[in-house]
Every structure is written in structure tokens, then in C-alpha cells.
Amino acid sequence: MQNTLKAPVTFDGTGLHSGAPARMTLRPAPSNHGIVFKRTDISLGNREIPALWHYVERSPLCTRLVNAAGVSVSTVEHIMAAIAGCGVHNVLVEIDGPEVPILDGSSAEFVRGIMRQGVRRLADSVRALRVMKPVTVENGDARATLLPCDRLKIEFHIDFAERAIGRQTRTLDMRNGAFARELCDSRTFCSRADVEAMHKAGLALGGIPGENAVVFDGAEVQSGGGLRHTDEPVRHKMLDALGDLALAGAPLFGHYIGDRAGHSLTNTLLRAAFDTPGALEEVRCDNVMIARLPGQGLVWDEIPAVRHVA
Ligand SMILES: [Zn+2]
Fold first, then answer.
1. What is the CB neighbour count within 10 angstroms for residue 288?
2. Best label site of 42, 100, 151, 254, fewest CB within 10 Å?
3. Phi, psi of 198, deg, nearest 5
4. Family assignment (predicted)?
């Protein structure tokens, strides 16, 4: 059956790009509500923004949702990954500004907050989307693909000039709380040159190297105590992919392959999948299918404590 949170949970922090303080509260919501953001700092007009692929405004650095009234919320990918990775279907996300707090740059604190409250079962069955035929999109040397699969599998390949990143590859079957165990604590990252370019463009104003982002400079790593995994960057790209795929509006049964992909290309992939006749099929999950969804079987002890490997 569908579920929601047992009780509200609040996160306080700073927006990565705006640098503005942000308070965000996840509230329980009824069946078939889905994930919806609500701007509490705006009092007039439509201030709700559904977390769906067609509300995404193209933005290379983060995922930004905008409703018809022009009301937006940015950097939704890490909270969306936490909600999807914990297998929660219905949440109202109240936020008092235009950007989700970045916290430590990962989804770990969101996962702990959701798990601390726990979930409550609702009366309706879970609606999911099954990938029925391959869909691929490309942009330059970046590519993103969805293939049919009886569970959600995320595969990612990256290749960065920074020697401390280089080539990294990982594939993960997202069943059984794998997201919380293997991906949720991996932090956002960039190169020193990116930081300078973003600051010039008035972005990443809330970024603190080593505190809420890992910064790579050639062979050097600024990461506040070291990396949390030797391949933390590719794990973070998988986390982002889960968050961006969650904008399908329902859990996906499919194999996602990202090759140097980013937020914008994953959104292009979702648009292509919804635009391709017969590529996605809506299904109501039986018990066997539910057991394969991310978050099923997740237990508190599997959520990683913050630790460093290097
Ligand atoms: Zn990210």
C-alpha cells in the first residue's frame, strides 16, 4: 500500500546557491497526493509546486521546479532522492524560501529524519511506472538511457579531468534500502575551477568547501576529514539520478544508465520516456512488486554514520 510519514520532520540549513537560510518541513499527506512543495513565505496565489518532471526548468547545476505562477523551488534533488530511497509516496514539503537547505551536501540527514519519524500505511495501492522499451538521450559526450528491468537499477559512469576523480563506474540494485546503505551519505562535489566560475555567476554562495561540498583541485581533495567513499563522486551522481528520476511521479521499474549525465539530461530522458508511445506502462503494485521497491526492508541500523575512508 501507499504510505506517508507518521509525523512532520523539519530541517534547518542554508541554500547552496542562494546562501539564504532555509527551513523545510516534511508533512504527512493522503493517498495519491504525491510529493508537492509549498512555499510558505508566499501568501498570495498558487504557491504549491508538484515534484513532477514537467515542472522542471532547465538548469545545469541543480534541479529547479517552477509552477505556472512562476513560483519556484531549487536544488530539490537530494530531498527527492531521500524520499524515493526511503520508499515514501506522499509528502507535503513546506519551505520558507526558494531553495532546499543543502545540509552536508548529501541526503544522509534527510534519510535519518524520515526514518526517525517512520512511515504510516495508507489505504490505496502503490502506482508505479514500468519501462517497456529502451529510451536514450544524448548531449555531446553525455548519454542517459532507460531499459526495461523488473526493479530499479541505477548505473553510472563518470570521467573527470581532476586526477582525484578520474573514471568511476558503479551499478546498484535499489532494492532493500540499498540507497540508504550505499549512496545517501555521498556529498555533492565540484572542481576548484567550477567554484570560481559559480562565484563569478553569483552561484554557490552558500557553498563551504569540505562542509557541504567536496572540492577537487587536480590531485587534491578539500573534503573536511577526507572522502566518505573512495568513489564518493560517482555515488553522488547516482544519488542525484535517483532524485531526478523520482520526478516521474511514481516509483520506476527500469535500468537507468547515466554516462557523464547530469540533472538536465536525466530530465530530458524522462521527457523522452513520457513522449515515446509505449515506453512507460502504469501498473498497480502487487506484493511481489512492492518488495522490489527502494526503501522496502530499510532498517535504522543500516543508515550509515558519518565516516571517512581517506
Ligand atoms: Zn547532487
1. 8
2. 42
3. -65, -40
4. Belongs to the LpxC family.
Residue type, 241: A
Q: Specify the CATH number for 127-302; select among 3.40.190.150, 3.40.80.10, 3.30.1700.10, 3.50.50.60.
A: 3.30.1700.10
Where are any strands of DSSP class E within the chain? 3-5, 9-14, 21-28, 35-39, 48-50, 56-57, 64-66, 72-73, 91-95, 119-121, 127-131, 135-139, 142-147, 152-159, 167-173, 189-191, 214-217, 220-222, 252-259, 280-284
- pLDDT tens digits, one per residue of 68-92: 999 999 999 999 999 999 999 999 9
pLDDT tens, position by position, 137-193 = 999 999 999 999 999 999 999 999 888 899 999 999 999 889 999 999 999 999 888
Q: Angle CA(22)–CA(25)–CA(31) in degrees, nearest 5?
A: 145
Rounded CA-CA distance 148/307 in Å is 35
Q: In terms of Cα–Cα distance, which of 258, 249, 242, 247 is closest to 295?
A: 242
| 78 C-alpha to ligand 1 centroid (Å) | 6
How far does residue 175's CA lie from ligand 1's centre (Å)?
21
Domains 3-121 and 127-302 share a fold: no
Residue 263 is a catalytic residue: yes
Among the residues of 88-190, which ranges form H helices?
A: 108-117, 178
Q: What architecture is the 3-121 domain classified under in CATH?
A: 2-Layer Sandwich (3.30)
Q: Measured over all CA atoms, what is the biggest interatomic distance in the chain, rounded to whole angstroms?
A: 53
Given the residues 89, 255, 263, 308, select the one marked as catalytic: 263
